[in-house]
Design brief:
The complex is a heterotrimer of chains A (110), B (170) and C (431). Chain A has helices spanning 2-5, 11-31, 35-59, 67-97. Chain A is an all-alpha fold and 110 residues long. In chain A, helix 2 packs antiparallel against helix 3 and helix 3 (35-59) packs antiparallel against helix 4 (67-97). Chain B has 170 residues and is mainly alpha-helical. Classes of the chains: A mainly alpha (110), B mainly alpha (170), C mainly alpha (431). At the A-B interface, helix 2, helix 3 and helix 4 of A face helix 1, helix 2, helix 3, helix 4 and helix 5 of B.
């Protein structure tokens, strides 16, 4: 159905885009060996959530439709804080263990 | 629902770029290439935000993600040794792929099974002023907490990365 | 002169006063001919983008000549003067030379990133031109968040510089790009805070709105906000890598910085992008601080975009001036300057502006009283703040080191014995 697919943007389309990004981010975060790769996955998931929030804010009935954008801005703020701390952690771990591969950082393993 | 053809075309092109770049982040073997594809993906997401008539969020996205977080990540890549700069998977990649696929299936199902209350409203007019009002009236407490969070993160990052000072050898 | 001819000239003068009239005519033509809705958008986008990109191309060529001639005159050199009258053909010769040069690429470079970096460095500068108001109705992309867009797009350059430095696989390139990033990150803060003061005062982030604010109250922002003007000017000349702050490509320290390994047209792109960035920053300063296309009553007689270009080149001359006369900072001096001087002063200014805006809103004073009052108060406070900071934070000038400095593992030879005259002047005892 070409008129459904390309001629318009519906809520479902944006949600699907968010879903794809979330799934890719989840795969990255769960599977990558490098700590920076994991962090990239987390950032991608946060972006997917933001896409979804903005889609709801744009399309869905709400008394205050702009609240979705407010939430998205809070998510961006938290993501910035999270990225800086996570990268600082990666550097601190590298200094002590000489690696950032998360399958080699296993000091707490039983 | 957005019916404008131009915006719809822009959305599909941006969506294809974003998802394509995200897949490239998974697939490329060099970590630095992955970071650069991720930066491109962030810019694509900012484009999606503009399609969804969130201009302020889009510009904030470019400023913070593409301008700051991507640079931070390239920095971190450079601080790791050259031998570790590859983008390989652990042995958990198969269950991770299954889980990610399941999440995608669930999201797709929920998306199409739910009957959303679609509002037939048009694009927002300029959002910056009303966002500022929202931040300083109903959301003023979260706004202040966010500034405390940023402060904490800054101090935390400094403490974590500060090297122990060598005793001065006279 | 016959009246008919006079009306013809004035009529056409009116037409070029705002080039948006022209594009409006073309759009009307398309609409009358029954052209589709989207065609109008495409045509106006192509017209605007074509105009801006050709302006950028012309500017990049002209500025090579301007910069070399003016700096030559300032440093008592001749500058290029062989090719054509006043050396006008020199930029053409430079461009031909760059195009003919072999594009070398180190064998150890990361190919794709190495090629993409100069392109990514050029694009943000060109993007910035899209939101600038050239006249009352002459803005290609009228953004409500124009000021924020300027900051966002210019922050993309950092990634490109990093790509160039990383992919060259050369120590000096990496040093250069690390220095650029340290500088960009440090100077981003005073820049944002300085512009925040302007946004607070004007009550809008729309660039045309800021110009309209200045036109409404007949006061360019540089008079109302002198401190942010100095902060922005200094910070931005650091971000531009121009000579008082060109530690990123300090040729006597780290060869050529991040573009050490680039040659031919790839280097040409870096060079052109630096000129373009200088022009776009001059344009931002003349929009935000000097009133853009508005100049008291002059903008009713002369086309606004001509006034705007005149202002841009005035500010650009200031940049060339600082480049031609000031020596280079050291890295630590430059970063300390950002963190210890610029940022606290900018924060002070934010507090001041917020108080002033609140006072204006609450008191209900008329603009005719408030604007001159704020101009006087802000100028006095700016001078006071700058001098206070100079007294408080400036390092004491040391003619002789007051203590011996040892470094681990390095044998430092002892200082020459101070003479009696030195001791009397500095109070340092002979060792």
């Amino acid at each position: 159905m070409p008129d459904l697919l390309l001629a318009s943007v519906r809520l479902e389309h944006v949600l699907l885009l968010g879903g794809w990004l979330f799934a890719i981010g989840l795969f990255l975060a769960l599977s990558k060996r490098n700590a920076i790769g994991v962090l990239m996955g987390v950032e991608l998931m946060l972006n997917a959530v933001n896409v979804t929030l903005l889609a709801f804010s744009r399309f869905v009935v709400s008394p205050r439709p702009l609240d979705g954008q407010v939430f998205a801005l809070f998510v961006i703020t938290v993501a910035a804080a999270e990225a800086s701390v996570a990268l600082a952690l990666a550097i601190a771990v590298y200094r002590h263990r000489r690696t950032v591969n998360i399958d080699e950082i296993d000091l707490l393993r039983w | 629902m957005i019916n404008d053809t131009g915006i719809a075309v822009a959305f599909w092109v941006l969506a294809a770029t974003t998802v394509g770049c995200a897949l490239m982040v998974v697939m490329v073997r060099e970590l630095i290439h992955a970071v650069l594809f991720l930066a491109l993906c962030f810019v694509g997401v900012a484009g999606i935000y503009i399609v969804l008539s969130a201009d302020f969020v889009a510009v904030a996205q470019i400023l913070i993600y593409a301008g700051a977080i991507a640079v931070l990540m390239t920095f971190a890549v450079m601080l790791t040794p050259a031998a570790d700069r590859e983008n390989s998977e652990t042995a958990f990649w198969a269950p991770a792929a299954v889980l990610a696929g399941l999440v995608l299936v669930v999201i797709t199902y929920v998306t199409y099974a739910t009957s959303w209350h679609i509002a037939g409203r048009g694009a927002f007019p300029a959002t910056a002023a009303s966002l500022g009002e929202a931040f300083l009236k109903p959301y003023v407490v979260p706004f202040e907490v966010a500034s405390v969070l940023l402060m904490t993160a800054m101090i935390g990052a400094i403490v974590l990365t500060k090297e122990d000072e060598e005793p001065e050898s006279a | 002169m016959t009246p008919a001819l006079l009306t013809l000239i004035t009529k056409h003068w009116y037409d070029i006063r705002d080039l948006s009239n022209l594009s409006h005519k073309i759009e009307q033509l398309i609409a009358d001919a029954g052209g589709p809705h989207w065609l109008i958008y495409v045509v106006s986008a192509i017209l605007g983008a074509g105009g801006i990109v050709s302006f950028i191309g012309g500017v990049a060529i002209i500025n090579i000549w301007v910069e070399r001639r003016v700096v030559g005159r300032m440093q008592s050199r001749l500058g290029p003067n062989r090719l054509g009258p006043f050396g006008l053909l020199q930029p053409v010769a430079d461009a031909i030379k760059l195009m003919q040069k072999e594009v070398l690429q180190p064998r150890t470079a990361y190919g794709l990133i190495f090629t993409a970096a100069p392109i990514m460095f050029t694009v943000p500068g060109i993007l910035l031109f899209a939101v600038l108001p050239w006249g009352r109705n002459m803005t290609l992309a009228h953004l409500d968040v124009g000021v924020l867009f300027l900051l966002a797009a210019s922050s993309l350059g950092a990634l490109a510089v990093f790509m160039a430095g990383y992919s060259s696989n050369n120590k000096y390139s990496l040093f250069g790009s690390m220095r650029v990033i340290a500088m960009l990150v440090s100077y981003e803060i005073p820049i944002v805070l300085a512009l925040l003061g302007i946004v607070l005062f004007a009550g809008t982030m729309d660039l045309n709105g800021i110009v309209l604010f200045q036109a409404k109250y007949w006061a360019p922002m540089v008079m109302l906000q002198p401190l942010p003007f100095f902060i922005y000017f200094i910070s931005v000349s650091a971000e531009l890598n121009r000579t008082p702050a060109d530690i990123a490509e300090a040729e006597s320290e780290i060869v050529g910085g991040y573009h050490t390994e680039y040659s031919g047209m790839k280097f040409g792109l870096f060079y052109a992008a630096e000129l373009i960035n200088a022009v776009v920053v001059s344009a931002i300063i003349s929009t935000v601080f000097l009133g853009g296309w508005w100049a008291y009553k002059l903008d009713e007689l002369v086309p606004g975009w001509m006034i705007y270009i005149g202002k841009i080149y005035t500010v650009y001359f200031l940049f060339v001036w600082t480049r031609g006369t000031l020596p280079r900072f050291r890295v630590d001096q430059l970063l300390a300057f950002a963190w210890k001087w610029m940022t606290p002063m900018a924060i002070l200014n934010i507090v001041l502006v917020a108080a002033e805006v609140l006072l204006w809103e609450q008191s209900g004073w008329s603009a005719g009283f408030v604007i001159p009052l704020y101009i006087a108060v802000n100028n006095a406070l700016a001078v006071a703040t700058i001098f206070a900071f100079m007294r408080l934070l400036a390092p004491k000038f040391e003619r002789f080191p007051t203590r011996l400095r040892y470094y681990a593992g390095i044998d430092v030879p002892s200082l020459p014995a101070a003479t009696a005259a030195d001791t009397a002047r500095t109070g340092v005892q002979a060792v």
